[in-house]
Amino acid sequence: MLNNHHTYSDLELISLLKKVNIGAFDAIYSQHWAAMYQSAFYLLRDEDAVMDIVQDIFTGLWEKCQQLDIQVMLAYLRTAVRFKVANYIKAGKIHSSFYTELAGIDMPNTPGPQDFLELNDLKTIIQ
């Protein structure tokens, strides 16, 4: 169990996670699941698929916590999202309505540099 009055760094949480500390896993989940969900939803626009992808990533993180070599948790999780989304697309699991919906989305904000990098990475992975 983690001390609720102490803020743990990613490195501390990773170290505790490698010791199969459920409190560290819960803290990582609480800190990162929303950003992972948003990132995957931005690409897929399919709530059920996104929930499955995020759950798969966290399940894998817990099951392999002792073997993983993670330096920066957010970078690891963002990469995992990109690969899971790419695999989802490669597997042909996208519904045809996705493309229709995507064409109709009004994108009020101009994508930033990070968005372009992630899109290029995703294109590379899919090919």
UniProtKB/TrEMBL annotation:
Residues 29-91 form the RNA polymerase sigma-70 region domain. InterPro entries: RNA_pol_sigma70_r2, RNA_pol_sigma_r2. One of its GO terms (molecular function) is DNA-binding transcription factor activity. GO terms for biological process: DNA-templated transcription initiation. Pfam families: Sigma70_r2. This is RNA polymerase sigma-70 factor (ECF subfamily). It comes from Chitinophaga skermanii. The lineage of its organism: Bacteria, Pseudomonadati, Bacteroidota, Chitinophagia, Chitinophagales.
